[in-house]
Amino acid sequence: MKKINFSAGPAILPASVITQAAAAVEDLDGSGLSILEISHRSKAFDAVLVEAEALVRELLNVGDEYGVLFLSGGASTQFFFTAMNLLNPDETAGYLDTGSWSAKAIKEAKLFGHVNVVASSKESNYNHIPKGYTVPGDLKYLHLTSNNTIFGTQFQSFPETDAPLVADMSSDIFSRRIPLERFGIIYAGAQKNLGPAGATLVIVRKDLLGTVERQLPSMLDYRVHIKGSSTFNTPPVYPIYVMMLTLRWIKEQGGLTAMEAHNERKAKLLYDEIDRNPKFTGTVSDDESRSLMNVTFVCTDDADTGRFLAAAEAAGCDGIKGHRSVGGFRASIYNSMPYEGVETLVNVMKEFN
Ligand code: PMP
Fold first, then answer.
1. What's the pLDDT tens digit per position in 279-297?
2. Which of 349, 328, 346 is nearest to 338 (CA)?
3. Distance between CA 26 and CA 32 in Å, rounded?
4. Which ipTM value was assigned to this complex?
5. Pick from 95, 245, 260, 293: CA 20 to 30 A from residue 155's CA?
6. Which residue stretches of 147-254 are H helix?
7. At 33, is the secondary structure helix, strand, or coil?
8. 230 ligand 1 Cβ < 6 A
9. Residue 192 catalytic?
10. 251 near 324, Cβ under 8 Å?
11. Among the options 192, 221, 249, 266, which is catalytic?
12. Residue 197 alpha carbon, nearest atom of ligand 1
């Protein structure tokens, strides 16, 4: 039986992307070569990079004042890369602490300058996005994690500040429209909404670069990668190729407006069932903080947990076990999750007694 992949990441990809990606492993567009064996400086791969960048720019409305980079190292490398490139030792960056990934970004940034944790929901095990805080005026940038993959929370709007936002969008990039002009840097590991693990998308406003005093190793300098068009060294060729296919798929679906509507509809179906069914309880404390990508819930009676997991798995729902720090269940319903996949899970919930 084909499983429905609710995993948090690496995660589900569109079926058509997997078919094309598999074909390209045998033969890339009739070239007689596999995508796995072509040079990163070949014409064929150059075309992939050019198209992937153009699609990122088109879908998110990214102008020339930004560089678009396909790097390696995952979002975890960007935790320090961003601070290393933007923050001087005597400057302060603001951070919103909304989950374990934010906390890791904070830890790394402290290696390079002052960090002001402007708001945190740590005391309540990150079960909501903080509200009602004031962002100080003198920040070099304000960092946030737009979607908290583990805790099932998401910023539905972005904080008011004059400072450029630096955002880890690993688990909700391309899932909705965003006010791009407010962001100084956006970074995302590919393995949730974009492709297989191994590539990291970075969108960076060029005028923010070159403002730190420290010497930067070449591989850790955004300017070097911008100048080298992501081929300063050998980039992750295959993950970038699959990313390009996924971006094409997003465009074919109708772009971010269509993705947003699709994701809202799926999340509503699942949250409505969690709210209606006394057997289940959501783990996020206020509806406004709920993620449209990672839906977290528990069995109201913990004794039901094992039985519900077995029932979901018997229906083909794979990867719904919650992260160990939250427990219960987490259904990751990224862009590529079809509505019917969520319906299957909701039907298991309806029939569970
Ligand atoms: N940020 C977020 C929001 C994530 O969900 C993850 C991975 N689950 C990471 C960062 C870490 O990403 P990577 O493994 O690509 O370093």
1. 999 999 999 999 999 999 9
2. 346
3. 8
4. 0.99
5. 245
6. 222-227, 237-253
7. coil
8. no
9. yes
10. no
11. 192
12. 15
